[in-house]
Amino acid sequence: MKTLVVEDELISRKKIQKIMDTLGECEVVEGGRDAIAAFTKALENGVPFDLITLDIAMPGMDGTEALFEIREIEKGKNIPAEKQVKALMVSARSDKDSIITCIQAGCDGYIVKPFDKEMIVNKLEQLKSGKRISIADVEDIQASHSQTKPTETKSNIMEGIISRLKGGEIDLPSLPKINIKFNEMINKGANLQEIADLLKQDMAISFKLISVSNSVYYRGVVENKTLGQAISRLGLNTAKRYVDAISTRTLFTTKNKKYAELIEKLWEHSLSCAYASQIVSEFLKLRLQDDAFTAGLLHDIGKLVLLQVIGELEIKAKLEQEIDTIELFETMDTYHSKFGFAILKKWGFSTGFAKIALYNDNLKEADHISQELLVVHFANLLVKSMGYDLAEKAEIDVEGAESTRQLKLDSTIVNEVKNGVNERMEEMREYFR
Fold first, then answer.
1. What is the DSSP string of 187-212?
2. Burial 60-69 (b: 16+ CB within 10 A, else e)
3. pTM
4. Is 73 in contact with 48 (CB distance < 8 Å)?
5. CA distance linking residue 356 with residue 103, whole number of Å
6. How far apart (Å, rounded) are the C-alpha atoms in residues 187 and 386?
7. Beta-sheet pairing, 86-91 with 109-112
8. Torsion (CA) 414, 419, 421, 422 in degrees, nearest 10
């Protein structure tokens, strides 16, 4: 069987592909227009698809529109009904209108997410036997979905989270307003006094910036007592880094006490990675488009959101069961990068910056490896090897890493960065509690 999978969500896409790969040849696309192009090409080459699975909610052309166009192409080529491609909708939507619309567009079967292999195989058996969905089946589909739930695996958990995100039940966090205004003022070329006037509106940021300016790393002969003095001593770029850190710190919270310790460890990992990124970029005198400190600070923001969302859903009893530690780490490792990319794009960061969150754990998947990505990849591995991580201290070959090689870092530089990170974490930890 030759199958075309049409799905924009990475989790569902990989899951369906894995299932369909066991049943025959499988091709995957991420949107409706790509689906039409792939379908048409296969038809023209004389090797048409036997089955197409489509999600409904996709950017650009949705699954229903794509299916309608595919059926029009088949009509135009006078393909008889029995030889037309079988179309299976696999969607998070279970409302009556959505199901009926899909039937009218020409689908043969309908599965409501979350799904498992057994559900897919059973539906394919029905299609092989000639059973095709009709409007009379709508209530049965809805009833079956409410009564039958697949085993709660990390994939199904993530499907549930994504479904709730799409349905508006879960909101992605917003970047603190003070941070947004601060960055806007810097981009407009505001002077130190104008920036100081803005930051005075936040007493916590003002107090901590003054404290940092009087720390071992930055203090001068005279103690700073005003925000203007602090910013003047730190300089605009350094002040920006600490505003980013102080405002981002407020995001690392959770209502679920079960995950409080993990989130605290994640904060230390993020902060240490920020320092490591800054130190190595300064040591190598790199001219980066995106600030290395902020890139290191936000590289794992997807893990934070997943911890918060899972914790919230557990409190509201919207998950079938609590997630054990092993499954939690597997879930975060597998899916945090996509969440991080989405969050940073929502916050207005550039695509290049957001791709640091997407690829910092796996350079091989990156379509372009920037200097910023190399720096954060190295910093991430380094601080993990130092024990700044959610899990126990890991044995990591930092010096043998691809980013270490491309940045041309020898053991002397690696050790100097380690020492710099430890010193700054020890000195600055109290300012970010």
1. HTT--HHHHHHHHTT-HHHHHHHHHH
2. ebbbbbbbbb
3. 0.62
4. no
5. 41
6. 36
7. parallel
8. 140
430 pLDDT above the threshold of 80: no
Residue-wise pLDDT tens digits, 268-327:
999 999 999 999 999 999 999 888 999 999 999 999 988 888 888 777 766 555 666 667
Fold of 177-432: Hypothetical protein af1432 (1.10.3210)
Q: For residue 129, give Cα distances in angstroms to 99, 102, 108, 144, 381.
A: 21, 21, 12, 20, 53
Name 52's bridge partners: 4, 87
Q: Which residue has the higher pLDDT, 53 or 390?
A: 53
Nearest residue to 53 via CA among 123, 118, 104: 123
Residue type, 132: R
- Domain at 2-150: CATH code: 3.40.50.2300
Q: What separation in angstroms does the CA of 47 have from each of 11, 21, 38, 85?
A: 28, 17, 11, 12
CA 239/CA 261 separation, integer angstroms: 28
Taking the domains of the chain in order of start, what are their residue ranges?
A: 2-150, 177-432
Question: First vs last Cα of the chain: how many Å apart?
Answer: 57
Residue with tokens 């799905």: 7
| Domain pair 2-150 / 177-432, same fold | no
417-to-344, 398, 401, 408 alpha-carbon distances in Å: 27, 12, 15, 14
Please report, for residues 8, 58, 212, the alpha-carbon distance to residue 341 in angstroms, rounded to integers and kept in the order given. 15, 18, 30
223-280 pLDDT per residue, tens = 988 888 988 898 888 888 888 888 888 889 888 888 888 999 999 999 999 999 999 9
Q: Is the pLDDT of residue 103 over 60?
A: yes
- Taking alpha carbons only, the member of 192, 265, 263, 175 closest to residue 230 is 192
CB 280 within 8 A of CB 375: yes
Given a contact cutoff of 8 angstroms between Cβ atoms, the answer to whether 251 and 392 are in contact is no
